Amino acid sequence: MKAVVANGERGLEYTTNAEKPAPAKGQILGRVSHIGLNPIDWKIAYNVPISKGTIGGTDFVAIVEEVGEGVDADKYIGAKVSGWVPGFFSFSGSAWAEYVCTDAKLVYFVPDSISPLNASTIPCALTTASQGIHQRIGLPMPRADGSANPTRRKWFLVWGASSSVGQYAVQFAKLGGCDVVATCSPKNFKLVEKLGATFVFDYHDSQVVEKIKQATNDSVFFGFDAISLSHTITKCIMAFSLEAKAAKLITVLGPPENPREEAVDVITAFSFSLFNAKFEFFGEIVQGSSEDYEHIAKLFELLPILLEKKIVLPNKAREFAGGLQAIPDALNEFSSGNHSAIKFVIDV
What we know:
This is Dehydrogenase. By secondary structure, the chain is α/β, with parallel strands linked by helices.
C-alpha cells in the first residue's frame, strides 16, 4: 500500500510498497480519508532516529472495511470513524498510509454534522486535554445533555489556549464547573472567549501573571499549560493562588524545577499511555495504562453526542490536497510556526 515512512536519516519518504495491516482481535481496519498533523509528528520525523520504512502519523479519519475477532461487523463495517495511533511507535498502528488498524474501542463514530476535515483535528489533542483534566486533576466529564457540572468556585488557568490542545482544555475546564482564565495571542482572544474563557490575556505581556492574579482575585487552583516550555510552566506556577496547598498544573512536556513544590503539583499528561502497551519513547521505557485506555474508550463513546450537540467544538482546519505525498511539505510549514489556532489536515 501507499504510505509515508521514515527514511532512516531523520527524514521521510513516500512508498507504494508498505505492508497493508490486518486487524487483530478487537481491532478495525479502515481506509484512511483524512490525516490530522500534530507537533509530535514533525518533532519525531525530523529529530529522532527511526528505522527506515517505519510508517508515521497519529490522527486520522477512515471508513471501516474489515474487523477483527470480537468486533461487531454490523456496527463498524462501512462506518466513518476517527481516532489516533502512536505513529512511528509501530506497536499499535500508524496513520500516514492508505489503511490503518487500531482497537475498535479507540475510535469514535463521526456524526454527519462534523466534516471529516474537522473530525481529524480532534483525537490526539482532545485525549491529551481529557487525560490531564478529567483523570489527573479529577474534574467531571462533560454531560451528554449539555447541562453544567456543579460550579467549583475555583479558577482554571489555560496557557496557550488557542493551540489545538489548549482549545479542548478551555472547553473541558469550563464544562467541568470551573471559571477559566486563559492566555494566547491577542488575535485569538475572541476564539478563546467563545470556547468558554472569562478572561483572556496576551502571554507576551510582561505583566501577565499579575493581571491573571488581579482578574481572578488570586484564586487560580488548577491549570493546563499547553505550551510547556520552561518559562511558561514557571509563569503558570507563579500565577496560582498564594493560598494554594494542593493545586494541580498539567503540562504536555516534562516539568522543570518547581519553585512552589509545597503548593503546586506539576503533572505531565502523556496520552500515549492510553495504548496500554510497553514501549520505548525517546530513550525511556514507558508502560501503558489500562485505566487510561478505558478512560479514552469511555470518552470516545460519549464524543459523537458532544459533537452533534455542539457541546464540544473541534479545531478549525486547513486542508492540504495532494494525498499522502503532501505530508512532508505540510510538516515543514507546520514546523515553521507560521500558523495559529488551526490544525493542518491532509486529504488523502
